[in-house]
Queue: 2 jobs
Job 1
Amino acid sequence: MYTEMFDKTSTQMAQFLNPLLEAQGKMVDHVARITDFQVEAVKTYSELSFGTLRALTEVKDPQSLQAYVTKQTEVAKSLGERVTADVNELIKINRSFAEDLQKMTQQNVSNATEQAKKATKQATASAASAASESTGSAGTGTASGSGSTSTSKKNA
């Protein structure tokens, strides 16, 4: 009896915890992707900044200053393109995460609805069975009671 109750409780706990564990796994994966993205972005932007500073230290005369300024317009254009690409990549990562969570939520709602229908069906069947048993035993008691009453009237 206790084993059956323990197994049923364990099954119910697993049904409750599995979606939470799945969501937690997806969140950890998402944080890892965002972290990798940020580390790579910091590395890229740091290299770009230090490259610009190194180029500035090499300015010695008006011609090298002119070359530096010309190069900076290219660097600014490249930086703008990189920022746009990074923002798009970040949006893609976040959208993917949101879609994964939405799919998981829909699946869990479907599972919960299905389990609720099964539980309702079982409860209805149990209630009907209990009602038929109580009606059957009440009908038996009533029938024997009326039979003894009629016998009492005959004897009187």
Job 2
Amino acid sequence: MGETEIPDEKRRTVRIPTEEVERILLEEEKSIDVQVGTSPDQLKLNGKLLDIHENGMCFMMLNHSLREGDLIFIDALLGKFPFSTDAMVRWTLGSQVGVEFLDAQARDAAFLAELYASRILNSLLDEEDD
């Protein structure tokens, strides 16, 4: 791969890496699939979740043609929790795509808040063990 400089850090919130989401959510699956389309009826591109936070997510998708500013629909299954939302592509870097959620519903936001709480509690417990 060519050397591509990662954009300056402009994140307002901490991302939850896939490994953390998988540890919390997954039972037998090896990764979290993300389906992307222009509408809920046209989900056609498949990707793999890289990280997620309260305002958006990053996923890896090979051979995509997504561009900054594209409006898309995302569908994923986080453990047993169905997650669907409209989103806007905020950046792409090769096969990585970063999006901002446009219509995160209250249950989605609450679920993401639970992930944060779980991560914080686990971090505190890990510190106590050290």
